[in-house]
Structure formats: C-alpha cells, structure tokens
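Hi there. Long-time user, first ticket. I'm pasting a complex I've been working with (about 600 residues overall). I'd like to know whether the download I got is complete or cut off, because the file seemed smaller than I expected. Thanks.
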Amino acid sequence: MSLNLNETEQAVVDGLSDKFSDDLIEVYQSCDHTYIRMEADNIVDICRYLKTEQHFIFLCDILGTDRYTSDERFEVIYNMMNLRTQDRIFIKIRVEEENPVVHSVTSVWKSASWYEREVYDMFGVRFEEHPDLRRIFMPEDFEYFPLRKEFPLLGIPGSIALPDTTPDTE
Amino acid sequence: MKLKDINDKVNPRFFEKHQRSIYKSLEDKHTTIEEIDSEDPLNSKMILNMGPQHPATHGVLRLILQLRGELIEKTKIDIGYLHRGVEKIAENKTYQEFMPYTDRMDYLSPYSNNVALCTAVEKLAEVDVPERAQYIRMICCELARISSHLLWLGTMVMDAGAISFFIWTFREREKIYDIFDEVAGHRFTVSHSRIGGVASDFTDEAVARIKEFVETFPQELKDWHKLLDRNRLFIDRNEDVGIVKTEDALDIGATGPVLRAAGYAVDQRIINPYLQYDKVDFEVPTRLEGDNLARYFVRMEEMGESIKIIQQCFDKMPKGPVRTNNAKQAYPSKDEVYYSMEGMIHDFMMTDTGICPPAGKEVYHAVEAPKGELGYYIQSDGTGHPWRLKVNAPSFRNLQVLENILDGEMVADTVVIIGGVDPVMGEADK
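Hi, the file is complete. Here it is re-exported in full:
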C-alpha cells in the first residue's frame, strides 16, 4: 500500500529513519492516521526526540492491546499530537508475553503516569522507572489482568462459583 | 507523617493491600519535602480521607489528602469505584449493541458519547451518513453540551455556597430533557444515534421545542452572567484557586475546558472537523489564567457558542433521509422490516452479526465532548465484534490534572476545585 503522508508525518518518518534507523520496523496508514511501529528498547529517546525536535508536545493517550499471539503478544500504542500543525501520530511498540517490561515515558510527558498505570492494570505490562506504578481501576489485591483475552467475561477464576443457569439442577 | 502512624490510625479492613499501597504511595510523593518537615512538634499534620461517598465529590471519587493545618500538602486520587469494564464488554458485543453502554459512560451528555462511537465505527467501516442525520447529531450534541455545562454550573456554584442557582440551572436542564424525550423517546440515556445515521427524524413538536429553547435560553444565560460575573463573593471564592499553569497544562494532560482555560485553543471541532462542524461558524473561548474563574468563563461562553451552532444548523439542515440506505451497513427502517422479507432478514443480520469492518483496520476518532476530547480507538479483526476498543476519556485525563493542582491549595477549596474541573466518574472509571 502506498503511503500518503502530509508534511508533518513525512518529517516524522524521515527524522525517525534518520536518527533511529535500527529501530524503525514499519510505517502504515489506516483511516487517515499514520502508525509507526518501532523497537521497544529506545522508546524514551524516540519520544523525547518527537517532543523536542518534532513538537509533539501533547500526549493524548497510551493504550495497550492484546494481540493473543505466541510472540510479541502485547502492543503499547502512544497517541500524540503536534499542536503546531495539529497532526496526530501513533507510535507502536510490541513486548513479549513473558516478562512484559517497557521503559516509562513519564520523564518526557508527566501525563503518561496515569495512562501507563492503566495499561499495567489492564494488561500487566510493567513500566520501568515509573514513579508510582500501581493499579488504577482494580484494587491492588486483584491478581488478574482483566483485558487480557484469556480473562473470562463473567466470573473471576478461583472466586465464588457463578450461579447455575439451569435452576432445576441440584 | 510515617507510614506506620498512618496505618495505625486508619487500620484498613477491606482490600487491605490496596489501602496500604495507596497510603504508601501518598507517603512517597515529594519525599524530599517530607524529610525537611519530619519535625512536627505541634502535630498539625493529618491525613484526610475524602470520599468515595462524599456528596460533593460528584460521584465515587476518593481523595486522600495530607494536610498541614488547613493547607493540602499532597494529594492522591483513588479511582475505579465505578469500574464496569466497558472495554471488555465492547469486545464481546456487536458495534451497535455496544452503543447503549456509551450512554452510561458520561451520563451527563449521553448524546456526545453515542456520536463519538458511531462516527468512529463509520470511519472504520466507511459508512456514509446522510447530511440531515449529521445536522441532527450536531444539534443534539450541542444540546448535550449545554445540559452538561448546566449541571456543572449548578453544582459548582452550589459548592461555592449558592444553593438557589442549582434550581435555576436544573429548570433549564429539564427543558433539554423534555426535548430529548420528544426526539429520542428517552429523557436521560438517549441512545438515539445509530451507526449510519440516527434512529428517527425530528418531529415538528421537537423542532418547535428546540427553537423555543434556543430563543429563550440566551436571556437566562445573560441573567446568570449578570448575577455571577461581577459577584464579589463568587470571584473571591474562585479567583486564583486551582490554577493550571499554561506551561504545565499540556504536560499534565489537561483537555477540554480545563485546557482552554489555560490558554490553548484545542478543540476537536476545529482541528479535526467531524460531522458538519466545518460549515458552521463559531468561536473557541479561551482564557489565560487557568484558575477556576477562567474555567467558569470558558464554559459559560461555550454555552453561548452552542446556541449559535444550533441556530446555524437549523438554517443549513437539508431535507432527506436520516439513515444510510445500505442494508449491509445500517438497520433498515421499521416499515421495511415489518412489510418485506428482505427487510426482516437484514434486520436479523444486523442484530446477529452487525457491521463487519475489514480485518486489520484500526481507527482513532475523537469528538469534542463537553468534558474534552473523547476519542475511540477501535481495532477490527473482520468480525462483528471489535478486537480492541479503547475509550480515551476526558474525565480520566482531567482527574490526573486534579491530582497535580490540589497540592498547595486550602482544604476548603477542594470541593470548589473538583467542581471546576468537572469530572464524571462513569467516564473516568470506564
């Protein structure tokens, strides 16, 4: 698929392929937005570069997804905005299921704190050097990560059994 | 104050690990300040636990404040008391089935949430929406914005000490509820927007009511401006309280009126025009001070702009269908369902599988909800259910701002600041 990048997006792709050529994996577009997939190792430097050099000063969100694959299961997506040109860009990184650890970008944007806590709470992806990595919605006593695909929609594993759906059985 | 002292005093009994970790985290915040203040001979420090059932926290918000006299030294916010896991629910529902759940997110402006989801799905599945439906959505979104801001105004002024104001704003909200009752058949959780359009066209009665509201409301707004704008009590209570500094606002993740009151004219209706917002003319009110009073002015002016938008929509609204006619993309009309076999089958298919966007596609679409940027990120796997649906909720982001701005304020101002930031817990807790 050919890319249709505007000026800002082109500048970002050029800048990233220039400075972080080893980390850049792919660039693709879906529904008017550009997604850039990078290696997870240098995410803090990448984000700092985008903030200082490319003016992506506004971090809108960080979200996780569960790809449910055997390798590189979890994906963390950074949704950021350039307020000068009002363009949005998405940076994606993938982590393994075993020991999912990502460097925290709270040193770049302070607002990343709660977003990263949410990803940790829902998927169990831990963020290194995060100032206060606790669960945000679920209590600390909760042992599971509810948005992982294997977590059931109804009932908590090991908790009280669900009521019978057929009332006549003993 | 040391963690041991706190634990001795509060002695948590439910979710012990959770309680302990939040007090620990409070102790750890700004640890350098803590060490300087470790001598406290007068014992003026205390931990105040506010919420989750405090009436002035506007929902189940829990604040843990460390006080020194009347000064808040540091704050931690505990949310999640209304966590229902809507993102998990969304993964197990069709797109249309999930739509009523969005009403329960920001329950003060349900229409904006419906529209946010529907526009995101429409962008993902490339559904064209008839122009009339887009104007209907715009009118209702702006009414929802006024309704939400009216609740904010009433409760915020009540938090500041004026009780009767609450009743006046609720009288106006009642009119908006009546309008929604006429438009959608529901007063509160409207669920009127559909993927591919809206459920029903405006009736003549509904148009007349909206037009009457648009005519009478500016006068009310003017009266309220007259009452509050130069009111010494109100200004003293709100000026220089809860300041979001312009240089910090973006860094701590403010959005919506909180961000606009700090000097950034960020409005999704302007920077990323959806529906027909590029065809109407309106201003984005901003202020530079970033305090509670600035947020008051921004929201009051926004209500005036909303009225302007609604008037322009009525001038520009064409006649025509209100839902796309493609039965693979949207529910057929009830006439078709009851009187033709194809209609019946299509209705069944829409309910059973629903709309199936192409596999591997992903979309992020944000609308300007009354609280700020409300974005839906959807990843499709080609089936009728989203593989991943993420709600970027403005209240969640503004609560993080609240945690940052409360430090150093007076404890008596807490409630006013919460009122000024205007979080809705249904949305923040997902």
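A couple of notes from our side: The mean pLDDT of chain B is 86. Residues 30 and 36 of chain B are 11 Å apart (CA to CA).
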